[in-house]
Amino acid sequence: MTAQYGAEVASVYDSLIAPAMPLDEEIARLRPHLEGNRVLEVGVGTGRVATAAAPIAESLVGVDNSAPMLDAFRAKGVPANVELLEADFLRPLPFGAEFATAYSTMGSLACVRTRDELVTALSNIRAVLRPGGVLLFEYYSTAAYRPLVEAGTITVPTPHHGGTSTFTTTLDAASVLTMHTRVDAEPAPPVAFSEHILFIERDEVEACLEKAGFGAAQFYPAEGMQPYDWYHVRSEEW
């Protein structure tokens, strides 16, 4: 799968996107499943979560299919117990069943175009989890994003970055949501990029999890203005 988050996103991720998300809440949810464990992060990006998770985990492997995002992480310095790998979750991951915990934040697992692709991604993660291993992930909240689809285009200030961000959001008949983002922050030149995600309801996400061999999901809906729901599932015994 072609990386959605290339050099354009990498150039603004740490100044625009990361500051808008509450890292403390994510780490608090992950902590019990990180402590003393070998952990996999799917969609590690520039290391926003991995850098905070690494001191808690025994070791952490971060995979991402975007070389520019991984390069941005390396430029900041990678913790000693973290290994980075450029890999696509739609292909088998090059590990055995060695992880006690896998996690994915910022809706990374939604970066597929079909339900079958989501099942494939989840199956590839399950294959590298120990029996009974845990997967925690954020998925785009339909409650949060449907108003954006209805609005079409909106422009909002970005006080932590300066300037404005303009979002144009569409949803097609195949449940693929496309968001075009343009960041304007003078004197820097505009930055534009697009995201495509599978925009499905909770029952469909849970059906995909079941097909991939995970047990019943614990579900935590997005709160307030947060854009993601949380899922917590356990790999069924082999």
From TrEMBL:
GO terms for molecular function: methyltransferase activity. It comes from the Bacteria. Gene3D superfamilies: Vaccinia Virus protein VP39. Keywords: Methyltransferase, Transferase. InterPro entries: Methyltransf_25 (IPR041698), SAM-dependent_MTases_sf (IPR029063). GO terms for biological process: methylation. Residues 39-133 form the Methyltransferase domain. This is Class I SAM-dependent methyltransferase. It comes from Paractinoplanes bogorensis.
